[in-house]
Amino acid sequence: MSGSPAHLDLPRVTRASGAVRLPGSKSISNRTLLLAALAEGTTRVRGLLDSDDTRVMLESLRRLGVGLVAGAAEGEWQVTGAPGGFAAREAALFLGNAGTAFRSLTAALALGDGHYRLEGVPRMHERPIGDLVEALRQAGARIEYLGREGFPPLAISPRERRAGAVVRVRGEVSSQYLTAALIAFGAAGGGVRLEVEGELISKPYVAMTLALMARFGVAVERDGWRSFSVPAGSRYRSPGTIDVEGDASSASYFLAAGLLGGGPLRVEGVGRDSVQGDVAFAGVIEAMGAKVELGGDWIEVSGRPPLRPLDADLNTIPDAAMTAAVLALFAGGPSRLRNIASWRVKETDRLAAMATELRKLGAEVEEGADFLAITPPAGFAGSADAAGRVAIDTYDDHRMAMCFALASFGPVPIRINDPGCVSKTFPGFFAAFSRVVS
Fold first, then answer.
1. How confident is the model at residue 317 (pLDDT cuts 50, 70, 90)?
2. Per-residue pLDDT averaged across 159-166, rounded?
3. What CA–CA distance (Å, rounded) separates 419 from 430?
4. What pTM was computed for the model?
5. Which of 141, 302, 358, 381 has CA 20 to 30 A from 217's CA?
6. Taking residues 307-311, what's their average pLDDT?
């Protein structure tokens, strides 16, 4: 983030308690913005996340001619939809490193009638999109790669109309491909069955997509997690007002802090009634020794190390799983995080990055194709500098910065390099973290 410090030094902390009101969910925010933009009528969105990822979505929708008006309250927007297609039939869109925005807009634009160019930061151009492009081409989409085959940037031309009613999409790399296709076909009149090839990962994110589509009037029928039918004649209609839940992935850092720092620490904005899969992280920390209480829209945690080791398949909560990897430093024995291959194609190669930074703290780490095995250190002596401090590199990845803030509960001070990368989803993270720890 321009103007942010090169690093942030975190002192050692031993206590965590209080309450945190979470910012809006990134996943819900960007899905809701696009659905509102494609819907008939005007939607009042409340609690929208203000972050890099939502700003690039808002700016892209503006360039496409969508009516957007900021409300008087923080996080409130009026979105006037364009159910007949975006007003701008030509546009060049820059989407940073926002995977949800890039993939969903690719699908929505590819099923339309305009000429568009989509690009992002260099890392976005390393994140695969070929499976989504191939799925959309089955429905007549005309998409060209402007660089390496299978990766952004992309050029999109008006769609060729085809009669085919079955589209196959691969599910084992990213659930965002299926999400993007579902939303796009809901706006393009439906009449399509989407069949998933391979294992569908991150299923709760697809469930979230289906729930939001239903709020906008399109009910998708699914056969397990293998096929999804978008009814013929589908079109989105504004629900009037929609509230964005707090971000469940961001909740994981504070729930973990409550476990490490005694608690009670309460996060507000997500709970038992949440549509986000990452609320399942409450069960992960419970397995590691936390006392957890859930309300409809809050979760409260207490606990203390040493934690119980974790051996778990975390495929359904890949973002919150990063928090579990740092918690493994405080366990009483080796932990194993399984079925997390999707980490490889996120904002950075998170499997490699996590292994590297955990080793700096003295952990023994085995990095597999889709797992991490972590043996906690006796002390965090690993790669301390002359001041006894360990510097954590963040790889321009917001979640690396946020989850490693938890290492400040260990025996050495922690330096977070490039702390401004948290602006992607939670610009106020370090201020919020400092308010609940001591």
1. very high
2. 82
3. 8
4. 0.92
5. 141
6. 98
Closest CA to 70 of 52, 53, 100, 50: 50
**CATH entry, 7-22+248-436, from 3.30.300.20, 3.40.50.2030, 3.40.50.2300, 3.65.10.10:** 3.65.10.10
Q: How far apart are the first and last CA of the chain?
A: 27
Query: In this structure, what token pair is assigned to residue 48?
Result: 């929208």
Same fold? 7-22+248-436, 26-230: yes
Decide if pLDDT at 2 tops 50.
Answer: no
Burial of 387 (0-12, 13-18, 19+ CB in 10 A): exposed
**Which of helix, strand or coil describes residue 163?**
coil
331 - beta bridge partners? 307
Per-residue tokens: 77: 């927007």
Say how far apart CA 290 and CA 308 lie, in whole Å.
Answer: 9
Query: DSSP strand E in 255-370: where?
Result: 262-268, 291-294, 298-303, 311-313, 335-338, 364-367
- Name the pLDDT band for 388 (thresholds 50, 70, 90): confident
| Cα 5 to the center of its chain, rounded Å | 24
Domain locations in the chain as residue ranges: 7-22+248-436, 26-230
Structure tokens at 93: 């869109």
pLDDT tens, position by position, 86-102 = 999 999 999 999 999 99
Distance in angstroms (rounded) separating the CA atoms of residues 150 and 129: 6
| H-helix or E-strand spanning residue 180 | helix 176-187
pLDDT digits (tens, 9 = 90+) for 165-198: 899 999 999 999 999 999 999 999 999 999 999 9
What distance in Å separates the CA atoms of residue 18 and residue 244, rounded to the nearest whole number? 23
Report the C-alpha gap between 409 and 288 in whole angstroms: 16
Residue with tokens 């979230």: 208
Residues known to be catalytic: 319
CATH superfamily of 26-230: Enolpyruvate transferase domain (3.65.10.10)
pLDDT band at 164 (very low <50, low <70, confident <90, very high): low
